[in-house]
Amino acid sequence: MNLNRETIFRLNKFDPRAQFFAGVLTAVSVLYLQPLEKADRLYYLLLLIVLWSLARAQLIFIFKDILRVYPMLLFITFHLPFQKLGGFEIFGQVGPFTLYREGLWQFLAVHFKAFFLLNISFALSRSLSYKQIIALLNNWRTPHWAIAIYFYLQRMLQVFNLEAIRVKLALRARNLRLRRAASRHAAGNFLLMYLLRVWERSGRSSEAMVSRGFTGRFPIVYKLNWCFADTIFFLCTVLLTAGFWLWRIM
Amino acid sequence: MAYNVAIEAEAVSFRYPAGTLALERLDLRIMEGEKVGIIGPNGAGKSTLLTLLNGLRLPEGHLEIFGKAVSDKKNIKEIRRLAGLVFQNPDDQLFMTEVFDDVAFGPRNQGLEESEVEQRVNEALQILNSRELYNSSTIHISFGQKKLIAIAGVLAMKPELIALDEPSGNLDAFHRRKLIDWMNISRQTIVVTSHDLDFLWDTCTRIILLNKGMVVADGQPDTILKNKTLLLQNQLELPLRFQV
After folding, report:
1. What is the mean pLDDT of chain A?
2. Which of B60, B72, B90, B153 could cross-link with B146 by S-S, CB 3.0 to 4.6 Å?
């Protein structure tokens, strides 16, 4: 059993509104309420955007280890060896492992809360299904055209993912080695073909929708149902995110 | 059963934006309840013709589906309800992540109650003996299974006219047989393009041979699918059962 997937599956049971607000609260907590420097804040913002996008695109084949909750540690701390830890002046110079470890502990001591909340936020983004998001948008009286655009974007990301898997297999099947110039040329062609195929398939997807009677109004069948468990979940998130903040000002 | 005209095409032509002429002054009349097989070499215009029937592409000339002109934009919604199209590549057709949602997409767009939608999905999957795929993901199933789901998605809409593009491709023998059995008992008008001439022999009452966007021959399966010279001239060959 995959613990992370299981956790995400359980989160998926909560009402999308509870999940959404929990996501927003954690993001706010990470970005504004934590003792972070301005540069770190920007770093976390970018990290949050990247992780959310990857989670929604489900680009698991590239980042399958990163997209689990716990190995994110590696990703978050990836930049540390490149920083001026231990007095290195030249950007990009990698120090000995002991310095890296020291820097890592230092980093964790300061950033643990943010790291922890980022994990939660990431899991929330991953757990919200597109049907829940569509139901949520509908609940907020979002115009139908906007919901349709969201669905198209979602589908396009999916097609990007599926086509990338195919291109990767095709490259492997032809034994391409990027060290060789000819292979690099072929890989460039593959990339171009990849983009064209994504474009073409996205177009055909919309044709398939239209051929089955789609006129811009997405049929929404997912019912939002806020229950007691959602209230508990929501309160826990508020306590957790605000709790860190209170701890800080005390 | 009253046999009305299901498809009426007069001097229908279609040219792709890149300039390729796919269909050239096509005249065609298909009656309600007919099962018509469209054959021809690659690039003959078979798939293009099917997309016209659903109103996905607008041709030059006059094309009517159950008396409704495709060129009239007011009719398009009704034409799409009347004519269901199964794409050649199921990867293009399936866009929802779960099988149930994808098959239910058409009936939901028709504004049916959820209980009715569920019943339609069950029936469509039952016809193709694919009930086990009910809760599957459309991404993690085989190409043949995707094909079945694509067909089920159109069957669930219960259209009067079904246009099938290479439906037997990638199907195993069991599901191919299921599809043949269903086509033989169905009372709907069916237009099917295929290179599987044995499949057409088993299912169709009429064959139309296209080449370079024009009708080369039109007649009963007996006269066209057994005509070796005609088939060879059009880069086809006899169905396997006649190749002894």
Report:
1. 72
2. B90
pLDDT higher than 50, residue A65: no
Give SS3 for A148. Answer: helix
User: In angstroms, rounded to a whole number, what is the distance separating the alpha carbons of residues B38 and B50?
Assistant: 10
**Residue A126 is encoded by which pair of tokens?**
């991953």
Q: What are phi and psi for residue B171, nearest 5 degrees?
A: -85, 145
* Residue positions counted in chain B: 244
What are B26-85's pLDDT values in tens digits?
Answer: 999 999 999 999 999 999 999 999 999 999 999 999 999 999 999 898 999 899 999 999
For the domain B5-242, what is the CATH code? Answer: 3.40.50.300
Do residues A120 and A26 lie in contact, with contact meaning Cβ atoms separated by under 8 Å?
Answer: yes
Map out the domains of chain B as residue ranges. 5-242
Verify whether the Cβ–Cβ distance B85 to A211 is below 8 Å.
yes
Interface with chain B: mutation pick from A156, A212, A223, highest number of B CBs within 10 Å: A212
Check A131 against B92: CB less than 8 A apart: no
How far apart CA B210 and CA B37 sit, in angstroms, is 10
The pLDDT of residue A151: 87
- 8 Å CB contact of B91 and A158: no
Q: What is the pLDDT of residue A94?
A: 54
Q: How far apart are CA A231 and CA A18, in angstroms?
A: 8
Q: Give the least confident one: A123-137, B115-129, B145-159, B173-187.
A: A123-137
Residue listed under structure tokens 């509908």: A138
Residue closest to B48 by CA, chosen among B196, B204, B232, B193? B193
Task: Give ipTM to 2 decimals.
Answer: 0.84
Task: Provide the pLDDT for residue A74.
Answer: 54
Q: Under an 8 A CB cutoff, do A208 and B94 touch?
A: yes
Of B208, B189, B218, B182, the C-alpha closest to B1 is B189
A3 burial via Cβ count (<10 Å: 0-12, 13-18, 19+): exposed
**A92: helix, coil or strand?**
coil
